[in-house]
């Protein structure tokens, strides 16, 4: 089953694009949920950071935790476009 990115809202598309940019910058061959969460948390005008803070997530602890996870991901060189991991596909295909 293929995922229809064009069916996502503009903000969702931007978040996935930012996540993909992060994985490309970090030379990760796969786009993972950690990349997506990091992109969502780092959005300047996004809702995710404030929502997480409102429910008690310590944002000053979350950011280094996300960074630690990204640092451990496999790397490749060559500038290939990162592909969605199976875990990210599960997130994207999850039913509300």
Report on the structure:
The chain is mainly α. Helices cover 56% and strands 4% of the residues. It contains five helices and two strands. Strands 1-2 form a two-stranded parallel ribbon. The mean pLDDT is 90.
Oligomer: single chain
Cα gyration radius (Å):
14 Å
Kindly report how far apart the N and C termini lie: 18 Å
Task: Give the low-pLDDT segments.
Answer: none
**Percent of residues in helical segments?**
55-70%
Query: What general form does the structure show?
Result: globular
Count the beta strands.
Answer: 2
The chain-level structural class is: mainly alpha
- Helices, by number, come to 5
Beta-strand content: under 5%
How can the largest sheet be summarized? Answer: 2 strands, parallel
| SSE succession | HEHHHEH
Largest sheet: spatial strand order: 1-2
List keywords for this structure.
96 residues; mainly alpha; 2 strands; 4% strand; globular
Quick take:
The chain has about 100 residues and is mostly helical.
Write the layout of secondary structure elements.
Elements (H helix, E strand, L loop, with lengths): L9 H16 L4 E2 L1 H10 L5 H7 L4 H13 L11 E2 L1 H8 L3
Parallel strand pairs: 1-2
């Amino acid at each position: 089953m293929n995922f229809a990115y064009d069916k996502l809202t503009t903000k969702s598309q931007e978040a996935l694009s930012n996540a993909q940019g992060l994985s490309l910058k970090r030379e990760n061959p796969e786009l993972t949920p950690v990349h997506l969460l990091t992109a969502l948390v780092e959005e300047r005008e996004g809702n995710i950071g404030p929502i997480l803070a409102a429910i008690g997530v310590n944002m000053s602890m979350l950011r280094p935790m996300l960074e630690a996870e990204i640092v451990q991901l496999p790397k490749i060189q060559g500038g290939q476009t990162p592909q969605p991991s199976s875990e990210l596909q599960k997130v994207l295909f999850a039913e509300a």
